[in-house]
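Researcher: Here's the sequence for the chain we discussed earlier.
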Amino acid sequence: MLKITEFEEKYKTIIEEGMKVNLPSDEQENKGKRGSKKKSKPFNLLVWLKKYRGDILRFMYNSIVPFTNNLAERNVRMMKVQQKISGTFRSFEGAIMFGRRSGYTHLTFLIIHNELRSKCLYFDLNCKRNEFPR
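Model: Thanks. This is the structure I predict for it:
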């Protein structure tokens, strides 16, 4: 638990240092415009990172939450490619069938991949990542 508090403090320190460097300048005036002054993109990003700190660091507290969102994006990518190629799906049922088929294919790949990996580790075959005996 000590490491998590260290990471949290480091995260907080980085945000604070970034805020000091990227303060909104007083030079920018809203000449004849209403509302708040325009802020820089780095400052807005820092405000967002500070506001959603709990969501960003959730992977440290909950092992189920992945570090990145790559798996979810990878699962959606094929559907988006299909839409770009054909313009759209011909029907809602077609989109559902495509999702089922791609989900089944992906799941089958994961099962086979994990099975090969576990056999490789069980028999101590010195397999590198994504490299299996044929």
